[in-house]
Amino acid sequence: MGSKTWADLAREMKMFLWNPEERTCLGRTAKSWGLIFLFYFIFYTCLAGMFAFCLYVMLLTLSPYTPRYRDRVSPPGVMIRPYLNGFTIAFNVSQPGTWQPYVDSMHHFLAAYDDKVQEEKNIECISGRYFIQGGNESEEKKACQFKRSLLQNCSGIEDPTFGYSKGQPCILLKMNRIIGYRPGAGVPVSVDCKVQKGNESNLRSVDFYPGNGTFDLMYYPYYGKLTHVNYTSPLVAMHFTDVKKNYMVPIQCSLNGKGIINNVNSDRFLGRIIFTLSIGK
């Protein structure tokens, strides 16, 4: 038997693709192909149904209001405002264009803290103790008032420039929200700031608001955005009234309280935050 030519191979391939005598395609009749497609359709439909059922049963065990497992939740991280271009706040007092964006950012952020807004949406609470709210977890929770006037010199009310026009900038610090978290174990968490690296005399004076720079217990615990609709995170304002001018000053502001961790070198936001102030004349 001689070897097959390319023409023979092409003819066999054509016959395999479609055999007009046996009316088969790729060696199978239309009925055979139909049964195969039907089998796989039913098979994958059953798999999809089983997956959907398992997912549905799993979701039934979860609450949309409270995380089921919270044993691995770390102490809160912190963040500052204004936050525009990273963690360096640099401006020249004599050039309003360099500090006006920070001022605008502060006003925008504090709009939700306006006294009238807080009086309309939230209630007055008893200071110095946690605001525990019972009832069904799906019930809407009340939120305590945090008025921007509590920030005093850093409220933007008396000084709309938040001290930036005088080279004495205000920076706001807030803790990240954690559902059910009660910071300080009954004692308010406080804030302090220091020079992170370098000469400590580069930062000579910082004023804290409200009070002595603490997070009042009445703003905790937080119940989640679905039920704690009008909740506004409490703030601590840091008024840097005497910082060395024309110099990059790295500053570390830390939370202090029972259960607070602020010395993990691998996480600069856990219980502390590091930023740089550069104030030109």
What key attributes describe this structure?
single chain; 281 residues; Immunoglobulin-like; 2 domains; 4 helices; signal-anchor; transmembrane; hydrogen ion transport; glycoprotein; Na/K_ATPase_sub_beta
CATH topology-level name of the largest domain: Immunoglobulin-like
- CATH level-four homologous superfamily name of the largest domain: Na, k-atpase alpha subunit
What is the overall pLDDT average? 90
Helix percentage range:
10-25%
Count of helical regions: 4
Which percent band covers the strand fraction? 15-25%
CA radius of gyration is 32 Å
Distance between the termini: 100 Å
Q: Tally of extended strands?
A: 9
- CATH architectural arrangement of the largest domain: Sandwich
Quick one: biggest sheet?
A: 5 strands, mixed
Tell me the number of structural domains.
2
Encode the helix/strand succession as letters: HHEEHHEEEEEEE
CATH class membership of the largest domain: Mainly Beta
Instruction: Give the CA-based shape.
Output: elongated
